[in-house]
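Holo model, heme C. Inputs:
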Amino acid sequence: MKNPLSALPYLAAFLLFVFAPLPAAAGERALNILYTGAIRGELEPCGCAPETQSGGLARLSGFINGEREGLEPFILVDAGNSLAEDTPQGRLKTEALIRSFGIIGYDAAAFFEVPDYAGPFLKETDLKAVSASKGLVRSVLIRRGQLKINISIDPKSHKKGMLNLLLTDKPVTEAASRGWDVVITSSGETTDGALKTDGAIVASGYPKGEKLGVLTLRLDDKGRVSVFDQRWQMLGKDVAEDGRVRRVLKEYDAKVAELTKEEEKKMELSGPWLGAASCIECHEPFFESWAATRHAKAFATLEKAGKSKDPECIVCHTTGYGKEGGFKNKTATPALAGVQCEVCHGPGKDHARGFSAPAGPVNETVCLKCHTKENSPEFDYELYREKIIH
Ligand code: HEC
Ligand code: HEC
Ligand code: HEC
Ligand code: HEC
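Output:
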């Protein structure tokens, strides 16, 4: 029989491995600060590149619920710049964002100035907003275990005997303030992690909520930060969504569809766009091979995603949207759904009538209107052109 003591080093290594990450040495405490900032109304990624796109409020919530035990003790904060722009659709986004924030359970979310229209949305949730706006508070005090935490947007409001966390929209280099242990900014900068300046640890929320920031602190028995570590948590398609947030996003889609209907009333129906069916007569082989490409199915893709009434999606998945006589909706302009011939070759009415009107040259610039870095990260003109030769 083997000497049982020979297993000891392995046992020790195993114990180290299991217990090293969180429960800290005697007197020490640990805290995870989960943070976002500069979400800018991005409720979720568009889904154009599902393999690589990360982020979205439903996944954020799903991740936290799924990993709660491993993350504890933790707090969740948003450093501001979370609202969408002030347009009719932007306001719907802001409403959905605030409702989702309420469900996700932020310990504090910064809204430096709450626009008037957004005030009522905030009132309907239990979200702990910190704000300079009338009727709202600038700081909140929370407890996590033994720890008292002061979270504020006011650079002067740090408190003795607590962990002080400042939420700001200042750039990282200007954000450091004396008296604060941690500063989270929503400046929209992409930084490599967290840095220590002027006594404070400064980190910046990832733009558009693409990743969740996780800042792990160890505090000594006097409550001072002794060690810290930062990492980015990806929120890819493998993260299970929170159904409650998904429901809010579905309601958002329905409201967008209503808004779109109103906008459509103003659209001109006649114009220079014909649709692929009108090209068959003279260019049948081209039609057949185009019909086999994903361009032909681009609108069906949106229908499947429940996004066929969202102008922010329709614009690249149909033909001539927003232009005179271009795509309006599937009932009024079924011939213009999907990425049709005329997206690349230009409107065809004059050409089909007299042949003479030159169809515009097709080059990479045409593709890049839709195949942007964000929507088509793998785009390579040569490779992609090969796939659509017709
Ligand atoms: C700027 C143009 C543009 C906008 C805006 C856009 N898309 Fe796309 N979408 C594309 C392109 C280009 C592709 C093909 C990407 C590729 O395969 O390289 C695509 C692909 C897709 C796919 C297929 C992904 C797959 O591989 O299965 C889905 C789903 C999709 N988009 C949904 C949406 C939704 C939903 C919106 C609105 C929130 C949207 N798109 C807005 C350009 C756009
Ligand atoms: C009534 C017949 C007819 C219809 C309909 C028609 N075309 Fe053509 N098309 C032609 C002819 C003929 C030419 C060749 C003209 C030339 O070489 O000058 C041509 C040439 C083209 C070319 C090549 C131009 C070039 O520079 O060589 C493109 C692209 C094109 N058509 C696209 C379309 C599209 C897109 C539609 C549908 C919106 C369409 N055509 C509808 C007859 C037609
Ligand atoms: C009006 C917007 C638009 C333009 C312009 C456009 N595309 Fe696309 N393209 C799309 C959309 C949307 C999809 C995704 C369709 C789907 O999957 O439903 C797509 C998909 C593709 C795909 C399939 C990708 C794959 O992985 O299979 C190729 C290839 C492609 N486009 C090539 C091109 C090329 C080359 C050009 C320029 C000559 C171009 N596209 C111009 C919107 C556009
Ligand atoms: C995603 C963009 C795109 C779409 C959609 C598209 N084409 Fe093209 N088409 C091209 C490109 C790129 C070429 C190659 C021409 C070039 O090099 O300029 C081409 C070539 C052609 C040519 C031959 C021109 C020549 O010089 O020989 C015809 C005709 C044509 N397309 C018709 C159509 C018709 C009809 C449809 C729809 C059924 C269609 N195309 C859809 C991009 C597109």
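The chain has two domains: 22-243, 267-388. The pocket of heme C (ligand 1) is lined by residues 46-50, 301-302, 305, 307, 310, 312-313, 315-317, 370-372, 375-376, 378-379 (CB under 6 Å).
Archived with the compound record.
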